[in-house]
Amino acid sequence: MAAEYLVESPMDKVLDIGAGAGKFCLVGASCTQGMFYGVEQRESLVELSNGLAEKHQVHNVAFIHGNIDEICFSDYDAFYFYNSFYENIDTSSPIDYSIALDPKLYHAYTASLRNQLALLPIGTRVVSYWSGWEEIPSNFDLEYTACDGFLNFWRKLG
């Protein structure tokens, strides 16, 4: 449902912010005609994602090893955000120890995301899952929700 909302036209570019092992990108690329990109700061997860894409011959997907503040949002049409920044606040069960976690990073990444989204053109689409609304600028309209309000569909109005 999220992938279909984000891809309005063939080859729309969707960025998954904090892609992890690439599940959303792989499924989205498999069920739409969009191009899915996942940015992930853990190199081991990027390698895993690329391997899964190759193994299952999913060609409209790419994974980027990097940090969100290294990405130019204007290169993409739509965005998926499953609150990947939260691990900087709840450090009780880290994914691994390959990156330093810090509550200050949560606030910095959230502000960066909100600021970059605010600069995008009218019509930009965002799906957020299991996250607060502080990441989404006020010039985005909540079009609808699903999954008891945990999956939110946003579009920039002005």
Structure description:
The protein is α/β, with parallel strands linked by helices and 158 residues long. The chain has one domain (2-156): Vaccinia Virus protein VP39 (Rossmann fold, 3-Layer(aba) Sandwich), CATH 3.40.50.150. It is built from 4 helices and 7 strands. The chain has a 7-stranded mixed sheet. Strand 2 (35-40), helix 3 and strand 3 (61-65) form a beta-alpha-beta unit. The longest helix is centred in the last third of the chain and has 16 residues, at 103-118. The protein is globular, with a radius of gyration of 15 Å. The two termini are 25 Å apart.
Structural class: alpha/beta
N-C termini distance = 25 Å
Mean pLDDT over the residues: 94
Query: How big is the Rg?
Result: 15 Å
Low-confidence stretches: none
Give the oligomer, counting copies of the same chain as homo and different chains as hetero: single chain
| CATH fold naming | Rossmann fold
CATH H level, superfamily name: Vaccinia Virus protein VP39
Q: How many structural domains are formed by the residues?
A: 1
**Percent range for β-strand residues:** 15-25%
Keywords:
globular, 158 residues, Rossmann fold, alpha/beta, 4 helices, 7-stranded mixed β-sheet, single chain
